[in-house]
Amino acid sequence: MQKPDWIAFDWGTSNMRIWAMSASGTVLGEARSDKGMGSLAPDQFEAALRDVIGAWDHAGVPIIACGMVGAKQGWIEAPYAAVPCPATPEEFSTPDAGDLDVHIIAGLSQADPADVMRGEETQIAGFLARNKNWDGVICLPGTHTKWAHISADEVVSFQTFMTGDLFAAISGNTVLKHSVNSEDWDNDAFDGGVADAMARPERLAARLFSLRAEGLLNGMQNGTAKARLSGLLIGAELAGAKPYWLGQKIAVIGAGGLSALYVRALAAQSAPATQVKGDAITLAGLTAAYKRFKG
Fold first, then answer.
1. What is the DSSP letter of 29?
2. Coil, helix or strand for 136?
3. pLDDT tens for residues 16-68?
4. Distances (CA, A) of 178 to 46, 187, 188, 243
5. Does 3.30.420.310 match the CATH number of domain 161-276?
6. DSSP 8-state code for residue 175
7. In the chain, which residues fall in CATH 3.30.420.310?
8. Is the pLDDT score of 193 beyond 80?
9. Can you tell me the distance from the alpha carbon of 60 to that of 98, in angstroms, rounded to the nearest whole number?
10. Could you read off the pLDDT of 49-63 as tens digits, one per residue?
11. Helices and strands (H and E) in the chain: how many
């Protein structure tokens, strides 16, 4: 492989993705590792990075990184740029990494209501780089789903929902773990859960326990209960995020089933959304950051 002009790095909590890049934006090589931020102490990041890029000629090559590598528990805490601001802030943080030329992208923050994002800003920047002059709302589903209002190429405001965390906690650590333990799925049950939560979000806690009761009394199957649980939680999120997406152009960033569920739930509210694959958008965002870094 020819020597890269720069290296793009998406370093999350559980894994990392790395691309060797040419100046023109061509991917010269790609690597992955399960050495995410959550498994490393601050003094282990440099070695983990060297392990992954050791086969590449990286002498003097700038490494642009995004994600949880810049969190308080990461390699070095990168600052937050306060919204409204561009999705790719001008400020980078540089950890002590010997001869490695590492630059970590800043996250975004919001004062009121208090909120932060780290990593998602790069996906937003990538989407905007590919969709010039786009105004609307971007949804980034995940453990902590983000809703970001975009206008004039800036993130105006955003809101985080811990829906993924809630699903994991409820399905793994409450009485409902006996009711949703299944690989099966029921789209009708999901749609019904979304509709119920949208109509009466204040009844969410009661609706959750009814999943257990329906299984005991009426034989509800675990796959149906799991889908309904997901629908109830996503529906409650949509109800809370309604001021963001109502009447807006919507993009959902992320590949796979979870993002598709958000698109499906929004469609049921007569709010069509475009789904965009996350990997390509992340790389586009890192490329935008590299261009800003180079000036």
1. E
2. strand
3. 999 999 998 899 999 999 999 999 999 999 999 999 999 999 999 999 999 99
4. 43, 20, 21, 35
5. yes
6. G
7. 161-276
8. yes
9. 11
10. 999 999 999 999 999
11. 8, 14
% the chain with pLDDT above 90: 94
**Stretch (H or E) spanning 74:** none
- A 10 A CB-CB count for 272 gives 10
Does 123 have pLDDT greater than 80?
Answer: yes
Residue 255's pLDDT is 74
pLDDT value at residue 256: 83
Say how many residues make up the chain: 295
Distance CA 108, CA 90 (A): 12
287 CB-near residues (< 8 Å, 6+ apart): 8, 21, 25, 126, 129
Q: How many CA atoms lie within 13 A of 196 on its CB side?
A: 20
Average confidence (pLDDT) over 73-91: 92
What the block records as the tokens of 239 is: 């109800």
**Given 3.40.50.300, 1.10.290.10, 3.40.630.30, 3.30.420.300, which CATH number is that of 6-118?**
3.30.420.300
Residue 273 near residue 267, CB atoms below 8 Å: yes
Contact criterion met (CB below 8 Å) for 120 and 82: no
Residue holding tokens 């405001």? 157
Ramachandran category for residue 70: left, alpha or beta (phi over 0 → left; psi -120 to 50 → alpha): alpha
Residue 279 pLDDT:
83
User: Using CA atoms, how far apart are residues 271 and 20, in angstroms rounded to an integer?
Assistant: 38
In our burial notation (b when 16+ CB lie closer than 10 A, e otherwise), range 216-249 reads eeeebebbbbbbbbbbbbbbbbbbebeebbeebb
Q: Which two tokens stand for residue 179?
A: 């009711």
Q: Which two tokens stand for residue 23?
A: 């100046």
- What is the predicted pLDDT for the residue at 276? 94
Q: How far apart are CA 7 and CA 5, in angstroms?
A: 7
Of 168, 169, 161, nearest to 144 (Cα)?
161
